[in-house]
Amino acid sequence: MKLGIIQKTQTLAEELPDSLIAVYGMDHRCIWASPSHFTILGYPDEEMIGYKWTKFVAPEDHPHADLAGADARFNGRSIRFSINAATKTGVRIPLKCEAWIKIDRPSHRIVLIFQGTPV
Question: What is the pTM of this model?
């Protein structure tokens, strides 16, 4: 399903090419991921779409990332946090992150936008 919010997110990704930008559904599965996921983490789009964020976050940071996402969802505001991303080869990359909720107007679907910048 192509969401209208993805166009806006693609623009953000073009403005921030050194950041990981992704759109996640409320089921925690990736709907769209910026090309930087391949250059930074080693995951091409086809290996991102449909997978839960837990595949791309270091296991030791799952509880922290889950709480940050829940805070963004339940409080309706953006939240800033830090996690370690796990590359395809298992290397940990520290990220400064922000997540926020958006409603895709054409579909009325609620999504979570994620931005992570390597530090």
Answer: 0.88
